[in-house]
Amino acid sequence: MKVIAHRGYSGKYPENTMLAFRKAEEAGADEIELDVQLTKDKTVVVIHDEKIDRTTDGTGLVKDYTYEELKKFNAAVLFPNVTDFQSIPTFEEYCAWVATTALTTNIEIKTGRFYYEDIEKKTVEIVRRYGLEKKVMFSSFNHMSLIRIKELLPEAECGALLSDAGLGNAGYYCHNYGFECYHPGFAGITDQIVADCRKYGIKINVWTVNSMDQLEKLEEWGCNGVITNYPQVCRAWAEYKKEEKR
Ligand code: G3P
Ligand code: MG
């Protein structure tokens, strides 16, 4: 099972910052999950919320700032023990770094609240510029964005994000729209959904799994990836399981 670091190593470091991404790699993650939004001057930036209030020392919407303005805010406020300033990274800055590693990336297109015009095109352009076409996948709660990604980069895997409510016919649904993966919240998965995904060859990556009993359940179901805030714990668990099977 692939260990996917949710917003980087966000259990211990400020989410969606270069620090959290570097620490996820050190912790042995296979993949990094991050969220992208668009600034006023159409820069693709890595941040979860549409507003900067929760994670930085600023206020207001990402889309109302240019990147020059946005980069002055500190994205480390959720972790007061992190004294080094952390800017909101541009997606390009992230790609320049991740291209030097063996990591793959799950790019979540945040088009739920605002449908940022051309965010898919701009994101794919950056992926291509850094030669990361074979090292990325895309996910979104807005499945229109995934359909657009498939037009722009057909070879990239796409994962349909669903909330904890899940989708009873997830396998058929993903197959029908050409999505390779189903990404439910932990409560959005049942034996019947797992069976439906297997029937259609759809991979299952589950978020956000931070407890051992959920991890064991994912293994029992034969899930393909665990999206977690604690990549170090999941890596240690995965290694232990490997040993156990030998
Ligand atoms: O990709 C899984 C997870 O990131 C989806 O929810 O709100 O954390 O972006 P959220
Ligand atoms: Mg996300």
Q: Any overview of this molecule?
A:
It is built from nine helices and nine strands. The protein has helices at 18-26, 67-70, 91-98, 119-129, 143-152, 170-177, 191-199, 212-221, 231-245; strands spanning 2-6, 31-38, 44-46, 104-109, 136-140, 157-161, 181-183, 203-206, 225-228. It is globular and about 50 Å long. Helix 6 (170-177) runs parallel beside helix 7. Helix 6 (170-177) links the parallel strand 6 and strand 7. The chain is of the alpha/beta class and 246 residues long. It has an eight-stranded parallel barrel, surrounded by six helices.
Brief synopsis:
The chain has 246 residues and is an alpha/beta fold. It is built from nine helices and nine strands. The site of SN-glycerol-3-phosphate (G3P) has 10 residues, from strand 2.
Features:
eight-stranded parallel beta barrel; single chain; 246 residues; alpha/beta; 9 helices
Secondary-structure map:
Layout: E1 2-6, H1 18-26, E2 31-38, E3 44-46, H2 67-70, H3 91-98, E4 104-109, H4 119-129, E5 136-140, H5 143-152, E6 157-161, H6 170-177, E7 181-183, H7 191-199, E8 203-206, H8 212-221, E9 225-228, H9 231-245
Parallel strand pairs: 1-2, 1-9, 2-4, 4-5, 5-6, 6-7, 7-8, 8-9
Antiparallel strand pairs: 2-3
The chain binds SN-glycerol-3-phosphate and magnesium ion.
Magnesium ion (MG) is lined by residues 33, 35, 108.
